[in-house]
Specification:
The complex is a heterodimer of chains A (about 270) and B (about 300).
Chain A lengths: L2 H30 L3 H6 L11 H8 L3 H32 L5 H6 L1 H5 L7 H10 L6 H24 L4 H9 L4 H12 L1 H17 L2 H6 L8 H8 L7 H35 L1
Helix pairs in contact in A: 1-14, 3-14, 4-8, 4-11, 8-11, 8-14, 9-10, 11-14
Chain B lengths: L4 H7 L10 H29 L1 E3 L5 E3 L2 H7 L2 H14 L1 H17 L5 H13 L2 H12 L4 H8 L16 H25 L4 H9 L4 H30 L2 H7 L11 H11 L3 H33 L1
Antiparallel strand pairs in B: 1-2
Amino acid sequence: MTHGLSRAARQVPLVLIALVILVPLYFMVVNSFKTNDAFVASPLGLPTHFSFRAYREALAGRNVGVLFLNSAVIAVVSVTVATAFGALAAFALAKLRFRGRDLAFRLMLPLMVIPPIALLVPQFKLMSAAGLVNHRASVILIYVGLMLPFTVYLLRNFFISFPDELLAAASLDGCSTFGAFRRVVLPVSMPALLTAAIVNFVFAWNELLIALVFLQSEGSRTLVVGLTVFRSRFSLDVPVLMAGLTVATLPVLLIYLFGQRFLVRGLLAGSTK
Amino acid sequence: MVRTGRASARNGRRAGRGPRTLAPYLYIAPAAVVLLVVFGYPLVRLLTDSIASPGILGQVDYGFQNFTAVLGDPELHRAFLNNLRLFIAVPVMTAIAVLLAALLHEQVGGWRFYRSIVFVPYVLAIPVVGIIFSYILQRHGLLNEFLANVGLGGLAQDWLGDRHLAIWSVWAVIVWQQVGFGVVLFLARLSSLDPALLEAAMLDRAGWWARFRHVVIPHLAPVIEFFVTLSLINMLSWVFNYVYVITNGGPVHSTYVTELVIYQHAFQDGLPNLAAAVSVLLLIFATILLSVQSIVRRRVEAMES
């Protein structure tokens, strides 16, 4: 049979794609462990001895610690708030009846396609009137707004399949509507809540444009903005820049590896409804 | 009392009024307030800004002069043309992703590994990706060095410094990062494909290509539609970060995209009203794109039923 041959033939495109994906990542990681001379001599070779100098320098200078903390605070707070607000709204849109419900849900999709840059100037005027420019709160508020349409959309599509009979049973047991939401609906919706949280965390951690415009003071910048703004200072010492990029990548990579299985299932449920 | 959708449907319309209906609004209130601040007010302000022109003496003229100004601006034409070039990435990305997903679905050796790898670029920050690729694509970068080493030095180019090439280099980086999302999406959808269908096709001696065309593609159709729509919107509204980090619009403005024109007007030239006009045009185009998609979908659904 031609089975063995075709099996080999199938590996060829996959190996090629894997190489195309991995070489740039290899470039980043391997050079972060080199001295600058070793990088210049051979940008692709393995380091002759592993040096942590680049990490020490990246973490010591430029307050990478502060940048990291800013990114973490912004991502964690905005994801928590967006998931909480989004779950409340999605529950009402899925299980409660009120005037304007369908219209409210139908607004979520168009909100997702509004280019964030289009609203930046009015948002900036609003935030400077409120005295929030250069404060993490401004970015957190806008991130929550940008996360909500997707979060509500995904969670509503998940909640809607929750059996009404269970809600009715909870009410017979003396549960209030909110009690049923908190103690019955939320616990079984963990996969969907995690999917929303993971997608939103990756978005918040990686976002550049809004953080760039609203956080202009050095003390309030995020890690991604810091790397973008300061990259020219590192142009003579690429290993330090690569160490910074690796540090910035680790949290999202870990979250992805941890949440991979939820992510795939959750996104699919949200996309085909 | 828990009021489910079904219960209140039984109670009829009267139950929909009165004091008890206040509760659902409390659930959506927090989200609604945030959406009003982040989208509502800025959208209204954007529309009024786009038709206002502050004069030198402090008076404000209203009219469509901002629109005529930006519509006649060759910079915007060039930028928009670049967005259209990026649209070409969508069918390419989709084709690669569908093929890869079909291969991985057959559970070739190491498919779990490949599946994990292929999604990794998608979770990286665009600035991280952009900075790595600027080292790979620069004149004395990794790619040209590789080409020279395998005897293809003649193909070496100034990937980011050439006015005609730079936008295509950005294009390639976008494909590199986003193709994995398609693969994972399609693969997840294929897991619900009835294996008996593929086996039946094999018994009929249908070749790989025939099975791909007549079994795999039809099963994937709805998710392909979702991915294509999402990617088109991305190429229109979410490519600022790539261009800003990789080329910053250069060389000589050859990689400007619509978002970068807005950014330039708003934050560099101090022309927020022109920025607002371009933003409104971008919104209109995104809306057209969405409605075309929903019309196509309805046509297809009508044809199927």
